[in-house]
Specification:
Elements (H helix, E strand, L loop, with lengths): L2 H10 L3 H25 L2 H20 L3 H28 L3 H23 L24
Helix pairs in contact: 2-3, 2-5, 3-4, 4-5
Length: 143
């Protein structure tokens, strides 16, 4: 089985709550990579990692339903806008603090969603095999 098939299968067979957890976890992972690339002076790699996080945040933002989600959805929308702004700042100014702050925010959101998932007694989604996590192993829009 190709690694992208594994990821496709994983994403297609999870609940919305599990998918949100996957997206937050991937965003936190990519923010960690962005920070490492920033410290190493690898500008293209840092920019790519930040770009992936921005895609994930945009996907999360696009999934909000203000009518059903009410104030929580509006608050999340504002938070996602703020995170996007901080990521643009991190990329433009090549500074670590906006990356660190975005990572703290996304980690907090991830923990909240994990608690939600666990309270619903949903199974944990298995981790992507290490060989699948290598660069270029999954399709263009990567989790």
């Amino acid at each position: 089985m190709h690694s992208h098939d594994y990821v496709d299968n994983e994403v297609l067979h999870v609940t919305p709550v599990q998918l949100v957890c996957l997206l937050y976890a991937k965003a936190v992972e990519k923010l960690g990579q962005a920070r490492v690339h920033l410290e190493a002076g690898r500008i293209p790699e840092r920019s790519e990692a930040i770009g992936r996080v921005m895609e994930i945040v945009a996907e999360l933002q696009g999934s909000l339903d203000p009518e059903q989600g009410g104030e929580i959805a509006r608050d999340l929308d504002r938070l996602y806008i703020y995170i996007q702004e901080r990521l643009v700042q991190a990329n433009g100014e090549q500074t670590a603090e906006p990356i660190k702050e975005s990572m703290r925010l996304m980690s907090t959101l991830l923990e909240g969603w994990k608690e939600c998932r666990d309270s619903m007694d949903l199974p944990r989604v298995p981790a992507i095999p290490a060989e699948s996590a290598q660069a270029g192993a999954v399709r263009e829009w990567r989790l």
